[in-house]
Design a protein that fits this description.
With 674 residues, the protein is an alpha+beta fold. The chain is 37% helix and 20% strand. The protein folds into 6 domains: 63 residues, Orthogonal Bundle (Helix Hairpins), CATH 1.10.287; 232 residues, DNA ligase/mRNA capping enzyme (D-amino Acid Aminotransferase, Chain A, domain 1); 84 residues, Nucleic acid-binding proteins (OB fold (Dihydrolipoamide Acetyltransferase, E2P), Beta Barrel); 74 residues, 5' to 3' exonuclease, C-terminal subdomain (DNA polymerase, domain 1, Orthogonal Bundle); 71 residues, 5' to 3' exonuclease, C-terminal subdomain (DNA polymerase, domain 1, Orthogonal Bundle), CATH 1.10.150; 81 residues, Rossmann fold. It has 24 helices and 24 strands. The chain starts with a helix and ends with a helix. It binds 2-(butylsulfanyl)adenosine.
Length: 674
């Protein structure tokens, strides 16, 4: 066989392998090989194509990188109009839809429906001739769209060639191109570091990315497509149900929704809707409702269309997660650590299932990024339990009376001039606990369930006690008296006694809870636990310098700095002393230094181990006093590497850090366990 034939064979085999794995990855979400293995195969393909350009075929995975920019999009006339869907906004609307269907078809029982998520992206039409992707178009006005052929070719879940031998001479596949949330977040994060304008939501991101004249840009955007129907077709008899259409699409290599179901009866449809509404937030992409389609295609034909929508389908929408409303005022709140947060007061608006009248504006940078003025119409988004956010401004609706938002120069509560530390977005009131707002927030945090768990002291009472000067510091909590409290309006003897009892009960606590309750910046529950476990006593934590703090699991330079600064502040130490004098105590954790045979050693574990679990090895090493770090540096004493170790191993070799294998690690642990 000639060299040329050999090459062509290798090329075909390589291409088939890559196409197979790309389909496992992109369409089926079930990869069989690692990304690195795929990349290596892809690199080989590029090498072959580079050396033998005559081999390159249109369905090669290398053809997804985009091509030279166009000067404009051509228009495409849809041979079959791309319709939209009727909307249902309630269960009643859906019941009415089902009744219309039964009446028209003259049947007593509801028919089977296919239920599919309604993807929030941009509709596309893809034309395949003899299995080959020849055209991609947007929906446009439904009858004419834009030719985005070059762009759709860059979307990995769109097959360039239909899978299977017996493919139609012509088929149009329709579906929704969308940007998964993860990719959207990643894109926006990169855009803001590069100074590019971020997208408002994943739908706009998908539309903006797909309508690029330069398809090389589209190629870099994380887009996906979910296929949901067949349009024009020749040389291909349609199956008898929509469910089978979806199966056919999947066999051709398209991604179809993993959540689609064929259900009988409208009640089952309502249950499905409720289930997906619950799951909505946890899906990796945005959906804005559920589409219900009559399953039988002969029924669909019989039902036909009205105006711009089919009679056989309906989209029941979820409550909108974004609505437009007016920004009436901005107030500035002072947080526990003094950070000033601008809070938007809004014309109340129903969004994401609740009425929203406040939204966070985060910080001064965010106000500047949005370019928002008081009086502006703004898009407010509330998804799940997330705090409502202002996502964008509608500039065309800005009234003449709109005025810019001015960030205060002094604390709105204690009037201390505000400060901004270098490299930090937050602007803070530096007055600490002498600022009433910070004191209130600190006390709320101290008494909260996950901190000292002092029951019965809600936010309102904390605020009242601070206003009445009954509490001027955390230590004053322990000086509250039942007889004084019971005199207060609306409190009464019983509630007063309960509060005092809860405070009493909190005097004996655990060290990690007390550390967390202090409200040190960036010290959450996990860090507080690590500190307690590592040092064993509050005295040891107070005495720790930055280097000692850096020895603690998961503590980096910034957190170490905050901890050190907190305990270096005399007023903080004073309050701690007062609290302890008031009887707050805990059992110190005994750290048996004699067993800490690996104290001072920094160890890195990498690769996979066969006998030991990495997490178990880490715990065992830490119990012996070692610090188990996640990256290799010149301070690393030893690296234990199992098979599959990558960059950490290379780094260790570069830095001449000793490297040992799993057996050596087991031997070490056994030796020290004796
Ligand atoms: S079927 C003739 N199924 O919703 C009916 N549409 O409001 C064609 N969409 O333009 C649409 N997910 O862009 C259908 N599973 C789904 C869908 C879906 C999203 C979009 C589509 C359509 C719009 C109609």
């Amino acid at each position: 066989m000639s060299h040329k034939q050999d090459l062509a064979r290798e090329y075909q085999a390589l291409k088939d392998t890559l196409l197979y794995h790309a389909r496992r990855y992109y369409a089926l979400d079930a990869p069989e090989i690692s990304d690195a293995e795929y990349d290596a195969l892809f690199k080989r393909l590029l090498e072959l194509e580079g050396a033998n350009p005559e081999l390159i075929s249109a369905d090669s995975p290398s053809q997804r990188v985009g091509s030279e920019p166009l000067s404009a999009f051509n228009s495409v006339a849809h041979r079959m109009p791309m319709l939209s869907l009727d909307n249902a906004f309630s269960e009643d609307d859906l019941l009415a839809f089902d009744k219309r269907i039964r009446d028209r078809l003259g049947i007593d029982r509801s028919p089977e429906y296919v239920c599919e998520p309604k993807y929030d992206g941009i509709a596309v039409s893809l034309i395949y001739e003899n299995g080959k992707l020849v055209q991609g178009a947007t929906r446009g006005d439904g009858s004419t769209g834009e030719d985005i052929s070059e762009n759709v070719k860059t979307v990995h879940s769109i097959p360039l060639q239909l899978n299977g031998g017996d493919v139609p001479s012509l088929v149009e596949v329709r579906g929704e191109v969308y940007m998964p949330r993860e990719g959207f977040k990643r894109y926006n994060a990169q855009a803001s570091t590069k100074g590019d304008k971020p997208f408002v939501n994943p739908r706009n991101a998908a539309a903006g990315s797909l309508r690029q004249l330069d398809s090389r840009i589209t190629a870099r955007r994380p887009l996906e497509m979910c296929a949901y129907s067949i349009g024009v077709h020749e040389g291909y008899p349609l199956p008898s149900t929509h469910g089978e259409v979806l199966q056919q699409l999947s066999q051709w290599g398209f991604m179809v929704s993993e959540h689609y179901r064929v259900l009988e009866g409208v009640e089952a449809c309502t249950r499905y809707f409720d289930e997906l509404a619950e799951k909505r937030e946890s899906l990796p992409y945005d959906i804005d409702g559920i589409v219900f389609k009559v399953n039988r295609l002969d029924f669909q034909d019989e039902l036909g269309f009205v105006a711009r929508a089919p009679r056989w389908a309906i989209a029941r929408k979820f409550p909108a997660q974004e609505e437009i409303t007016v920004l009436k005022e901005v107030e500035f709140q002072v947080g526990r650590t003094g950070a000033i947060t601008p809070v938007a007061r809004l014309e109340p608006v129903f969004v994401g299932g609740v009425t929203v009248s406040n939204a966070t504006l985060h910080n001064a940078d965010e106000i500047a990024r949005l370019g928002v003025h008081i009086g502006d119409s703004v898009a407010v988004r509330r998804a799940g339990d997330v705090i409502p956010q202002i996502v964008s401004v509608v500039p065309s609706l800005r009234p003449d009376t709109a005025r810019p938002i001015t960030f205060p120069e002094a604390c709105p509560v204690c009037e201390t001039p505000l400060v901004q530390s270098e490299g930090e977005a937050a602007i803070r009131c530096p007055a600490g606990m002498s600022c009433q707002a910070q004191l209130k927030e600190s006390i709320k945090h101290y008494v909260s369930r996950t901190a000292m768990d002092i029951d019965g002291l809600g936010d309102k009472l904390v605020s009242l006690f601070v206003d009445l000067k009954l509490i001027r510091s955390l230590a004053d909590l322990y000086r509250l008296r039942a007889d004084v409290l019971s005199e207060l309006d609306g409190l009464g003897k019983k509630s007063a006694d309960n509060i005092i009892q809860a405070i009493e009960a909190s005097r004996y606590c655990e060290l990690h809870r007390f550390i967390y309750a202090l409200g040190i910046r960036e010290v959450g529950q996990a860090t507080a636990r690590n500190l307690a476990r590592h040092f064993g006593s509050l005295e040891a934590i107070i005495a720790a310098d930055i280097d000692a703090l850096l020895e603690v699991e998961d503590i980096g330079p910034v957190v170490a700095q905050h901890i050190q600064a907190f305990f270096a502040t005399p007023s903080n130490l004073d309050i701690i002393t007062q609290i302890r004098e008031a009887g707050v105590h805990w059992d110190d954790i005994v750290i048996d230094e004699s067993s800490m045979t690996l104290k001072g050693k920094t160890i890195v574990l990498t690769g996979s181990f066969s006998t030991l679990k990495r997490s178990a090895a880490k715990t065992a090493l830490e119990a012996l006093g070692a610090k188990v770090a996640s990256s290799v540096s010149k301070n690393t004493d030893i690296v234990y590497a199992g098979p599959g170790a990558g960059s950490k191993l290379t780094k260790a070799q570069e830095l001449n850090v000793p490297v040992e294998d799993e057996d050596a690690l087991i031997a070490l642990l056994e030796q020290h366990a004796e």
